[in-house]
UniProtKB/TrEMBL annotation:
Residues 1-137, 151-289 form the UspA domain. Pfam families: Usp. Gene3D superfamilies: HUPs. SUPFAM superfamilies: Adenine nucleotide alpha hydrolases-like (SSF52402). Belongs to the universal stress protein A family. This is Universal stress protein.
Length: 292
């Protein structure tokens, strides 16, 4: 079964950018495109009228307009549209994400995800989605301006901890004919966290930074072998992962981070690195669930 790339459409400039990004990606990868709408937001006049048929008509017209624009730019692309009216917005979008290769949504950044994704709903979708979620802003650069930039992916922990993010980054870079820049950030641990075994590992590697470079190289090895035509740049830097990735984001056409879902008494939460780049990165951001 061929999974589509799915884009959420809500009438905002951000969702228009998301649909355009998804259409370009679907065309590059030879995949169909699915445009979905969850019924919110509609114009105030329709909301006040509480006319269900008018809301349905508005949603259908919106999807038709976006589909028409995409057809003009990508005449060979297979496009389907759906109004998702079963369950709440989060549940509908999570179901759409589950059926797709990835889910692409519009984002204003700085803590606000627009349209039908507001506050806790956006957090639920990003934290619970079983497939990658890509956030795109209205100011996303035109393809000609960003075409030579790298796809940046964050790597941390053991190789398996970032395998899903690596696969997404390399697959995307291969489809675009660009390089992957793999980034591993590190910091000096507290003295009390050192142990004889950790000292031995550091001594064998020649110090902290060589150890981190060796760890990044080990994480990249299977992906270099699987994608031999994708150039790879390695970047190891001391600092917090969020800060290091954000410093490189202006040079990227896509920033890819892994996601470790965290459940608390108030619901699901995303990690601090994903949280930082989602709110502040100027380029599109892909959040990829760790399936390992």
């Amino acid at each position: 079964m061929t999974r589509p790339i799915t884009a959420g459409v809500d009438g905002s400039p951000e969702s228009a950018a998301a649909a355009a990004w998804a259409a370009r990606e679907a065309e590059r990868r030879g995949l169909p495109l699915r445009l979905v709408h969850v019924g919110e937001p509609a114009p105030d006049s329709l909301v006040l009228a509480a006319d269900e048929s008018a809301l349905t008509q508005w949603a259908g017209d919106l999807l038709a307009d976006v589909e028409h624009e995409i057809a003009e730019r990508h005449p060979g692309l297979a496009v389907t549209t759906d109004v998702l009216d079963g369950g709440g917005p989060a549940e509908s979008l999570l179901a759409a994400a589950r059926d797709g290769e990835s889910l692409v949504l519009g984002s204003r950044g700085h803590g606000v995800i627009v349209g039908f994704i507001v506050g806790s709903v956006g957090q639920q979708v990003i934290a619970k989605a079983e497939r990658p979620v890509v956030l795109v802003r209205a100011a996303d650069a035109a393809p000609s301006e960003a075409s030579a930039r790298d796809v940046i992916v964050g790597q941390e922990g053991e190789p398996e901890d970032s395998a899903a993010a690596m696969e997404f980054a390399f697959t995307t870079a291969q489809a675009r004919g660009v390089a992957v820049r793999a980034v591993r950030a590190w910091s000096l641990p507290p003295v009390f966290s050192y142990s004889p075994s950790s000292f031995a590992l550091l001594d064998d590697a020649g110090g902290m930074e060589p150890y981190e470079r060796k760890a990044l190289g080990a994480a990249l090895a299977p992906w270099r072998e699987r994608f031999p035509d994708v150039p790879v740049r390695e970047h190891v830097e001391i600092g917090s992962a969020g800060q290091v990735l954000l410093s490189l984001a202006p040079e990227s056409q896509l920033l890819v981070v892994g996601r470790r879902a965290r459940r608390t008494a108030i619901g699901s939460r995303i990690g601090s690195v994903a949280h930082a780049v989602l709110h502040h990165a100027p380029c599109p951001v892909a959040v990829v669930p760790n399936t390992g």
